[in-house]
Amino acid sequence: MSQELQPISPERAKEMYLNARKREVSQSTLDGYHYRLKHFIRWCNEVADIDNMNDLTGRKLQEFRTWRRDDGDLKPVTLEGNLDALRVFIRWCESIDAVLQGLHEKIIMPTLSKEDEQAESILPAEQAEAVLEYLRQYEYATRGHVILEILWHTGIRLGAFHSLDLGDYDSERETLEIRHRPETGTALKNGKEGERIVALSGTVCSAIDGYIEHNRPDTRDDYGREPLVTSRYGRLSRGNVRETVYKVTRPCYYGADCPRNRDPESCEGTHYNGYSKCPVNVSPHDIRRGSITEHLSKDVPEKVVSDRMNVGPDVLDKHYDKRSEEQKVEQRRGYLEGV
Protein backbone atom coordinates (compact mmCIF):
# COMPACT_ATOMS: atom_id res chain seq x y z
CA MET A 1 0.00 0.00 0.00
CA SER A 2 1.52 3.33 -1.07
CA GLN A 3 1.83 6.17 1.40
CA GLU A 4 -0.62 9.04 0.90
CA LEU A 5 1.11 12.34 1.53
CA GLN A 6 -0.56 15.48 2.85
CA PRO A 7 0.54 18.76 1.19
CA ILE A 8 2.33 21.26 3.44
CA SER A 9 4.74 24.13 2.77
CA PRO A 10 8.29 24.03 4.18
CA GLU A 11 7.60 27.13 6.28
CA ARG A 12 4.45 25.62 7.81
CA ALA A 13 6.19 22.31 8.46
CA LYS A 14 9.02 24.07 10.26
CA GLU A 15 6.57 26.15 12.31
CA MET A 16 4.65 23.02 13.37
CA TYR A 17 7.88 21.17 14.19
CA LEU A 18 9.24 23.93 16.44
CA ASN A 19 5.89 24.24 18.18
CA ALA A 20 5.83 20.47 18.77
CA ARG A 21 9.31 20.54 20.35
CA LYS A 22 8.68 23.66 22.46
CA ARG A 23 7.88 21.79 25.69
CA GLU A 24 10.53 19.11 25.13
CA VAL A 25 13.70 21.22 24.86
CA SER A 26 15.17 24.43 26.25
CA GLN A 27 14.69 27.76 24.48
CA SER A 28 18.36 27.83 23.47
CA THR A 29 18.01 24.40 21.84
CA LEU A 30 14.85 25.55 20.09
CA ASP A 31 16.69 28.62 18.82
CA GLY A 32 19.39 26.31 17.47
CA TYR A 33 16.80 24.29 15.53
CA HIS A 34 15.39 27.51 14.09
CA TYR A 35 18.81 28.79 13.04
CA ARG A 36 19.86 25.55 11.32
CA LEU A 37 16.55 24.93 9.57
CA LYS A 38 16.19 28.48 8.25
CA HIS A 39 18.88 27.71 5.67
CA PHE A 40 16.85 24.72 4.43
CA ILE A 41 13.76 26.94 4.11
CA ARG A 42 15.83 29.53 2.24
CA TRP A 43 17.06 26.84 -0.16
CA CYS A 44 13.50 25.62 -0.76
CA ASN A 45 12.29 29.15 -1.57
CA GLU A 46 15.25 30.69 -3.39
CA VAL A 47 17.05 27.79 -5.04
CA ALA A 48 14.96 24.63 -5.40
CA ASP A 49 11.54 26.29 -5.87
CA ILE A 50 9.92 23.79 -3.49
CA ASP A 51 6.63 24.95 -1.99
CA ASN A 52 5.39 21.50 -0.93
CA MET A 53 7.33 19.12 1.31
CA ASN A 54 5.77 16.23 -0.62
CA ASP A 55 8.16 17.02 -3.48
CA LEU A 56 11.32 16.31 -1.50
CA THR A 57 13.42 13.38 -2.70
CA GLY A 58 16.76 11.90 -1.78
CA ARG A 59 18.33 13.56 -4.81
CA LYS A 60 17.00 16.98 -3.80
CA LEU A 61 18.33 16.51 -0.27
CA GLN A 62 21.74 15.74 -1.73
CA GLU A 63 21.50 18.96 -3.76
CA PHE A 64 20.73 20.85 -0.56
CA ARG A 65 23.71 19.23 1.19
CA THR A 66 26.08 20.43 -1.54
CA TRP A 67 24.50 23.88 -1.70
CA ARG A 68 24.66 24.39 2.08
CA ARG A 69 28.31 23.33 2.21
CA ASP A 70 29.30 25.75 -0.54
CA ASP A 71 26.93 28.61 0.32
CA GLY A 72 28.16 28.84 3.90
CA ASP A 73 31.73 27.68 3.21
CA LEU A 74 31.12 25.30 6.12
CA LYS A 75 33.62 23.18 7.97
CA PRO A 76 32.71 19.46 8.09
CA VAL A 77 31.73 19.65 11.77
CA THR A 78 29.40 22.59 11.13
CA LEU A 79 27.87 20.90 8.08
CA GLU A 80 27.26 17.79 10.19
CA GLY A 81 25.37 19.86 12.76
CA ASN A 82 23.19 21.41 10.06
CA LEU A 83 22.42 18.04 8.44
CA ASP A 84 21.77 16.34 11.75
CA ALA A 85 19.13 18.95 12.59
CA LEU A 86 17.61 18.45 9.13
CA ARG A 87 17.48 14.67 9.56
CA VAL A 88 15.56 15.00 12.82
CA PHE A 89 13.18 17.47 11.16
CA ILE A 90 12.60 15.23 8.11
CA ARG A 91 11.98 12.22 10.36
CA TRP A 92 9.33 14.27 12.18
CA CYS A 93 7.83 15.25 8.82
CA GLU A 94 7.47 11.54 8.04
CA SER A 95 5.27 11.21 11.13
CA ILE A 96 2.75 13.74 9.76
CA ASP A 97 2.78 12.33 6.20
CA ALA A 98 4.56 15.36 4.80
CA VAL A 99 7.35 13.32 3.15
CA LEU A 100 7.92 9.68 2.23
CA GLN A 101 8.75 7.25 5.02
CA GLY A 102 12.49 6.67 5.37
CA LEU A 103 13.46 9.86 3.54
CA HIS A 104 15.60 11.06 6.46
CA GLU A 105 17.87 8.03 5.94
CA LYS A 106 18.85 9.37 2.52
CA ILE A 107 20.64 12.37 4.01
CA ILE A 108 24.33 11.48 3.72
CA MET A 109 26.29 12.71 6.72
CA PRO A 110 29.91 13.88 6.32
CA THR A 111 32.64 11.61 7.67
CA LEU A 112 34.54 13.47 10.37
CA SER A 113 38.11 12.95 11.44
CA LYS A 114 39.08 13.51 15.06
CA GLU A 115 40.52 16.88 14.00
CA ASP A 116 37.24 17.82 12.28
CA GLU A 117 35.26 17.05 15.45
CA GLN A 118 37.35 19.50 17.41
CA ALA A 119 37.81 22.14 14.67
CA GLU A 120 35.67 24.80 16.32
CA SER A 121 36.45 28.49 16.28
CA ILE A 122 37.62 30.26 19.40
CA LEU A 123 38.39 33.76 20.64
CA PRO A 124 42.11 33.61 21.58
CA ALA A 125 43.22 35.42 24.72
CA GLU A 126 45.36 37.90 22.80
CA GLN A 127 42.43 38.90 20.60
CA ALA A 128 40.10 39.15 23.60
CA GLU A 129 42.56 41.48 25.32
CA ALA A 130 42.89 43.61 22.17
CA VAL A 131 39.10 43.99 21.93
CA LEU A 132 38.74 44.77 25.63
CA GLU A 133 41.64 47.23 25.57
CA TYR A 134 39.90 49.16 22.79
CA LEU A 135 36.52 49.09 24.54
CA ARG A 136 38.01 50.14 27.90
CA GLN A 137 39.70 53.10 26.27
CA TYR A 138 37.10 54.33 23.79
CA GLU A 139 33.73 52.83 24.82
CA TYR A 140 34.04 52.40 28.56
CA ALA A 141 30.91 51.20 30.38
CA THR A 142 28.87 51.04 27.18
CA ARG A 143 26.56 48.14 26.51
CA GLY A 144 29.03 46.51 24.13
CA HIS A 145 31.86 46.87 26.62
CA VAL A 146 29.87 45.29 29.46
CA ILE A 147 28.73 42.40 27.26
CA LEU A 148 32.33 41.56 26.31
CA GLU A 149 33.65 41.97 29.86
CA ILE A 150 31.05 39.60 31.31
CA LEU A 151 31.22 36.97 28.57
CA TRP A 152 35.02 36.82 28.55
CA HIS A 153 35.51 36.92 32.32
CA THR A 154 32.81 34.38 33.21
CA GLY A 155 32.62 32.13 30.13
CA ILE A 156 28.85 31.82 30.61
CA ARG A 157 26.51 30.74 27.83
CA LEU A 158 24.53 33.24 25.81
CA GLY A 159 21.32 32.00 27.44
CA ALA A 160 22.74 32.60 30.91
CA PHE A 161 23.77 36.13 29.98
CA HIS A 162 20.31 36.76 28.52
CA SER A 163 18.75 35.67 31.84
CA LEU A 164 20.57 38.21 34.04
CA ASP A 165 18.51 40.76 35.97
CA LEU A 166 19.70 43.92 37.71
CA GLY A 167 19.08 42.22 41.05
CA ASP A 168 21.31 39.29 40.11
CA TYR A 169 24.34 41.56 40.24
CA ASP A 170 25.92 42.32 43.63
CA SER A 171 28.50 45.07 43.34
CA GLU A 172 29.73 44.78 46.93
CA ARG A 173 30.19 41.00 46.84
CA GLU A 174 31.37 41.18 43.20
CA THR A 175 29.11 38.36 42.04
CA LEU A 176 26.49 37.44 39.46
CA GLU A 177 23.69 35.02 40.35
CA ILE A 178 22.55 32.88 37.43
CA ARG A 179 18.99 31.62 37.84
CA HIS A 180 16.59 29.41 35.87
CA ARG A 181 13.32 31.31 35.31
CA PRO A 182 11.45 29.61 32.44
CA GLU A 183 8.07 30.92 33.58
CA THR A 184 9.21 34.46 32.78
CA GLY A 185 11.10 33.82 29.56
CA THR A 186 14.68 33.00 30.62
CA ALA A 187 15.33 29.28 30.90
CA LEU A 188 18.88 27.97 31.36
CA LYS A 189 20.24 25.22 29.14
CA ASN A 190 20.69 22.84 32.08
CA GLY A 191 17.63 24.02 34.00
CA LYS A 192 17.94 24.22 37.78
CA GLU A 193 21.30 22.47 37.59
CA GLY A 194 22.64 25.50 35.74
CA GLU A 195 21.94 27.83 38.66
CA ARG A 196 25.04 29.15 40.42
CA ILE A 197 26.79 32.26 41.73
CA VAL A 198 29.75 33.45 39.66
CA ALA A 199 32.56 35.57 41.10
CA LEU A 200 33.62 38.70 39.22
CA SER A 201 36.79 40.76 39.17
CA GLY A 202 37.01 44.39 40.26
CA THR A 203 37.66 45.39 36.64
CA VAL A 204 34.42 43.82 35.45
CA CYS A 205 32.43 45.25 38.35
CA SER A 206 33.73 48.77 37.66
CA ALA A 207 32.50 48.51 34.07
CA ILE A 208 29.10 47.19 35.15
CA ASP A 209 28.75 49.89 37.82
CA GLY A 210 29.56 52.59 35.28
CA TYR A 211 27.08 51.14 32.81
CA ILE A 212 24.29 51.01 35.40
CA GLU A 213 24.96 54.55 36.58
CA HIS A 214 25.43 56.28 33.23
CA ASN A 215 24.34 54.21 30.23
CA ARG A 216 21.72 51.63 31.17
CA PRO A 217 18.20 52.47 29.92
CA ASP A 218 15.86 52.05 32.89
CA THR A 219 13.40 49.65 31.29
CA ARG A 220 11.59 46.42 32.13
CA ASP A 221 10.93 43.35 30.02
CA ASP A 222 7.55 41.90 29.06
CA TYR A 223 7.29 40.18 32.45
CA GLY A 224 8.01 43.30 34.47
CA ARG A 225 11.56 42.19 35.32
CA GLU A 226 14.53 44.58 35.26
CA PRO A 227 17.24 43.11 33.00
CA LEU A 228 20.86 43.83 33.83
CA VAL A 229 21.73 44.85 30.26
CA THR A 230 18.92 46.58 28.41
CA SER A 231 17.81 48.43 25.32
CA ARG A 232 15.19 51.16 25.15
CA TYR A 233 12.61 48.41 24.74
CA GLY A 234 13.59 46.11 27.62
CA ARG A 235 15.61 42.90 27.74
CA LEU A 236 18.09 42.39 24.94
CA SER A 237 17.26 39.43 22.75
CA ARG A 238 19.85 36.73 22.20
CA GLY A 239 20.10 38.02 18.64
CA ASN A 240 20.94 41.54 19.89
CA VAL A 241 23.73 40.18 22.08
CA ARG A 242 25.09 38.00 19.27
CA GLU A 243 25.04 40.94 16.85
CA THR A 244 26.94 43.12 19.33
CA VAL A 245 29.61 40.44 19.69
CA TYR A 246 29.91 40.12 15.92
CA LYS A 247 30.26 43.89 15.67
CA VAL A 248 32.98 44.55 18.25
CA THR A 249 35.14 41.48 17.48
CA ARG A 250 35.76 42.52 13.87
CA PRO A 251 39.49 43.42 13.63
CA CYS A 252 38.70 46.59 11.68
CA TYR A 253 36.44 47.72 14.54
CA TYR A 254 39.08 47.67 17.26
CA GLY A 255 41.93 48.93 15.11
CA ALA A 256 43.66 45.70 14.04
CA ASP A 257 44.62 44.77 10.49
CA CYS A 258 42.21 42.53 8.59
CA PRO A 259 43.82 39.07 8.19
CA ARG A 260 42.04 38.72 4.85
CA ASN A 261 43.26 42.13 3.60
CA ARG A 262 39.72 43.27 2.88
CA ASP A 263 38.92 46.92 2.20
CA PRO A 264 36.61 48.16 5.01
CA GLU A 265 34.85 50.42 2.52
CA SER A 266 33.66 47.49 0.40
CA CYS A 267 33.63 44.57 2.88
CA GLU A 268 30.09 43.34 3.54
CA GLY A 269 31.03 42.68 7.17
CA THR A 270 31.41 46.39 7.93
CA HIS A 271 27.77 47.26 7.26
CA TYR A 272 24.90 47.24 9.75
CA ASN A 273 23.07 43.89 9.68
CA GLY A 274 26.09 42.42 7.92
CA TYR A 275 28.49 42.04 10.86
CA SER A 276 28.01 38.26 10.92
CA LYS A 277 29.46 38.11 7.40
CA CYS A 278 32.90 39.16 8.63
CA PRO A 279 35.08 36.06 8.05
CA VAL A 280 37.24 36.54 11.14
CA ASN A 281 35.02 37.80 13.96
CA VAL A 282 33.51 35.48 16.57
CA SER A 283 30.23 34.46 18.19
CA PRO A 284 29.34 34.40 21.91
CA HIS A 285 30.03 30.67 22.00
CA ASP A 286 33.52 31.25 20.56
CA ILE A 287 34.11 33.62 23.49
CA ARG A 288 32.98 30.86 25.88
CA ARG A 289 35.48 28.42 24.34
CA GLY A 290 38.23 31.01 24.53
CA SER A 291 37.43 31.91 28.13
CA ILE A 292 37.44 28.28 29.25
CA THR A 293 40.72 27.62 27.45
CA GLU A 294 42.29 30.71 29.04
CA HIS A 295 41.16 29.65 32.53
CA LEU A 296 42.73 26.22 31.99
CA SER A 297 45.89 27.79 30.56
CA LYS A 298 46.28 29.76 33.78
CA ASP A 299 46.18 26.52 35.81
CA VAL A 300 42.68 27.00 37.16
CA PRO A 301 41.70 23.43 38.21
CA GLU A 302 39.35 21.66 35.81
CA LYS A 303 36.78 21.09 38.58
CA VAL A 304 36.66 24.84 39.27
CA VAL A 305 36.27 25.62 35.56
CA SER A 306 33.61 22.90 35.20
CA ASP A 307 31.56 24.34 38.06
CA ARG A 308 32.03 27.98 37.05
CA MET A 309 31.10 27.41 33.39
CA ASN A 310 28.46 24.73 34.12
CA VAL A 311 29.94 22.11 31.79
CA GLY A 312 30.72 18.45 32.48
CA PRO A 313 34.38 17.31 32.57
CA ASP A 314 34.02 15.08 29.48
CA VAL A 315 32.41 17.85 27.41
CA LEU A 316 34.96 20.32 28.77
CA ASP A 317 37.84 18.17 27.58
CA LYS A 318 36.39 17.34 24.15
CA HIS A 319 34.78 20.58 23.05
CA TYR A 320 36.15 23.47 25.10
CA ASP A 321 39.78 22.81 26.03
CA LYS A 322 41.69 24.19 23.03
CA ARG A 323 45.17 24.11 24.58
CA SER A 324 47.82 22.49 22.41
CA GLU A 325 49.36 19.22 23.54
CA GLU A 326 52.68 21.03 23.98
CA GLN A 327 51.04 23.57 26.29
CA LYS A 328 49.46 20.82 28.37
CA VAL A 329 52.82 19.04 28.67
CA GLU A 330 54.56 22.19 29.91
CA GLN A 331 51.81 22.85 32.45
CA ARG A 332 52.09 19.30 33.76
CA ARG A 333 55.85 19.70 33.93
CA GLY A 334 55.40 22.66 36.28
CA TYR A 335 53.48 20.46 38.72
CA LEU A 336 55.99 17.61 38.50
CA GLU A 337 59.22 19.54 38.95
CA GLY A 338 60.92 18.48 42.14
CA VAL A 339 58.82 15.30 42.47
Commentary on this structure:
It is built from 14 helices and 5 strands. It is mostly helical and 339 residues long. The chain folds into 2 domains: 10-117, Orthogonal Bundle (DNA polymerase, domain 1); 125-287, hpI Integrase, Chain A, CATH 1.10.443.10. The strands form 2 sheets. The chain has a 3-stranded antiparallel β-sheet, with no helix packed on it. A two-stranded antiparallel ribbon has the order 4-5. Helix 1 (10-21) runs antiparallel to helix 2 (27-46). The longest helix is centred in the N-terminal third of the chain and has 20 residues, at 27-46. The chain starts with 9 loop residues before the first helix and ends with a helix.
CATH C-level of the largest domain: Mainly Alpha
Task: Please give the order of strands in the largest beta sheet.
Answer: 1-2-3
Give the terminus-to-terminus CA distance: 74 Å
Number of individual domains: 2
Quickly describe the structure.
This protein has helices at residues 10-21, 27-46, 58-71, 76-95, 114-117, 125-138, 143-154, 158-162, 202-215, 238-248, 284-297, 302-309, 313-320, 325-336, and strands at residues 169-170, 175-178, 196-199, 230-231, 234-235. With 339 residues, it is mostly helical.
